[in-house]
Amino acid sequence: MAVGNVWWNLTLRFLLELAALLGLGMAGWSLSAGMWRWILAVALPFVAAALWGIFAVPNDPSRSGRAPVPVPGGLRLVLELVILFGGAAGFHLAGYTTAGIAVAMLIAVSYAFSLDRLGWLLRQ
């Protein structure tokens, strides 16, 4: 089994995906007012989750292998980084700076232990 696909890193990656959605929702809530609060708090995580699920590299071993909309690996990597670090920034923007830093550091740890996957993505 490749290092990037060990159970703890896959679990961490899943938890970071959930944290990113939460951070994006919190940013949407805290950066707006009135009805826009509700709209952005729901729409930002929804759009991020849709992009995450729809745009994928065919046969990605860290996912199901299915790619509803196939994209090159480099584009997928950029999408992942924007969503994950966007969620970390969302915590910061919502006033939870320590949580944002912790999430950003965990993202870096996860990718550091996924160098095999990063190489695979960049070759696609």
Strand content: under 5%
By DSSP, the count of extended strands is 2
| Biggest sheet strand line-up | 1-2
Structural class: mainly alpha
Q: Can you summarize the main beta sheet?
A: 2 strands, parallel
Task: Give the low-pLDDT segments.
Answer: none
* Alpha carbon gyration radius: 15 Å
> Can you give the helix content as a percent range?
over 70%
Can you describe what's shown?
It is a single chain. This protein is mainly alpha-helical and 124 residues long. The chain has helices at residues 7-30, 35-54, 73-93, 97-112, 115-123, and strands at residues 55-56, 69-70. The protein has a two-stranded parallel ribbon with strand order 1-2. Helix 1 packs antiparallel against helix 2 and helix 1 (7-30) crosses helix 3 (73-93).
